[in-house]
Design a protein that fits this description.
Layout: E1 5-9, E2 14-20, E3 26-33, H1 37-42, E4 48-52, H2 57-66, E5 70-74, H3 76-79, H4 89-100, H5 113-144, H6 155-166, H7 174-206, H8 209-214, H9 222-232, H10 241-247, E6 252-254, E7 263-266, H11 272-292, H12 298-305, H13 308-329
Parallel strand pairs: 1-4, 4-5
Antiparallel strand pairs: 1-2, 2-3, 6-7
Helix pairs in contact: 5-7, 5-9, 6-7, 7-9, 9-11, 10-13, 11-13
């Protein structure tokens, strides 16, 4: 019987393949090495192929799509319920094959090379930002051991620390002064790396029409706009803006039963980096809204009614829906836009 569905358990070198026919009956269990995967699938008739969205998944998805296969990526948490008994490569491949055939299964959009490239810049920048913050905190901590306290804000490190190190009246040893200078040089290097990567991201942003459109939304700059454009790709993968907001984890978790709805904090599903960018952007919009005090505005009423953090998440949710509408309908941002309910 012909294989119609295949599940692949990806790995670095050894891949497990599970194939089933149109009735779901297993007819193939095979282990492949990395260099055998393309040869094996090039000799297979086109079929529905599923794999977990993990390291290398987008690369293999593009490879197999080029061979004519219909490839679907599944989030690992959606595969786990289909794993029978003990976990191993064979059971995982079978679970993926079962999950990909479910009619209500949700899939991860496959990214192209350009999307992955710009997102790599974002991930590298994020790593340097974390390292820079850690280095600044280390310098603060070491100086605090000697009774030297630096004001809040990373900018004060570069301003105040060199003055303290050069102050001969302070009871600091030569070894400690040399150490702090070395840490300061490392901090400057990290700062330079962040600036260079930001410049590359902004260059990509300038060449992307859709990313420039998203920048017009309040609370979104080049970093957020480029990250959203590259991550979402084709927004038509989402039925509506609510799905995109839920995919980003900007909706409440539920613990409802017996007809009683219980809403908890936000779900925090999806990409934490995108969610963080949207929420930080929302905080900046809220700060400006408090300054203007437009009493008739939706946001100002929300701020007065709810906690500032709740308001920031609500505004980030609304921004995500606006992004979906702009990407799907190919529109420019219009702050006074009202949907035509008759056409919905």
């Amino acid at each position: 019987m012909q294989i119609t569905t295949i599940g692949i358990d990806l790995a670095k070198n050894v891949f497990q393949v599970h194939g089933a026919n149109e009735h779901g009956k297993p007819i193939l269990r095979k282990q492949l090495r990395r260099d055998q995967v393309v040869v094996f699938f090039s000799n297979m008739p086109p079929c529905l192929t599923g794999m977990e969205a993990c390291g290398g998944a987008h690369h293999w998805a593009r490879k197999l799509e080029a061979l004519g296969h219909d490839v679907k990526l599944i989030a690992p948490q959606f595969v786990k319920p289909y794993v029978k008994s003990n976990k191993n490569d064979v059971a995982d491949a079978e679970a993926i094959c079962e999950a990909v055939s479910r009619p209500t299964m949700r899939f991860v959009p496959i990214k192209n090379i350009e999307q992955q490239s710009v997102l790599a810049l974002h991930r590298a920048r994020q790593g340097f930002v974390k390292a820079r913050t850690a280095q600044a905190n280390q310098i603060r901590g070491l100086l605090a051991e000697f009774g030297l306290v630096i004001p809040q804000g990373i900018a004060y490190i570069a301003k105040r620390v060199p003055e303290l190190i050069e102050d001969a009246t302070l009871p600091l040893t030569g070894v400690f002064r040399i150490l702090i200078n070395r840490l300061l040089e490392h901090l400057k290097l990290l700062d330079k790396q962040v600036d260079e990567l930001e410049a590359q991201i902004k260059d990509w942003h300038k060449n992307s029409e859709m990313s420039r459109r998203l920048e017009r939304i309040p609370g979104i700059g080049p970093i957020t706009a480029s990250a959203m454009t590259a991550t979402i790709g084709d927004a038509k993968n989402f039925t509506n803006g609510r799905q995109l907001a839920a995919w980003l984890g900007l909706v409440p978790r539920q613990n409802s039963s017996g007809g009683k709805s219980t809403l908890l904090g936000m779900s925090k599903r999806g990409d934490a980096y995108l969610r963080t960018l949207l929420i930080h952007g929302a905080r900046s919009v809220i700060y400006r809204a408090n300054q203007r005090a437009e009493t008739h505005a939706w946001l100002f009423k929300l701020i007065n009614r709810r906690n500032a953090n709740v308001a920031a998440v609500a505004l980030a949710n609304k921004t995500a829906r606006i992004i979906w509408a702009m990407l799907v309908h190919n529109r420019d941002f219009n702050p006074i836009f009202k949907a035509d309910r008759a056409s919905v």
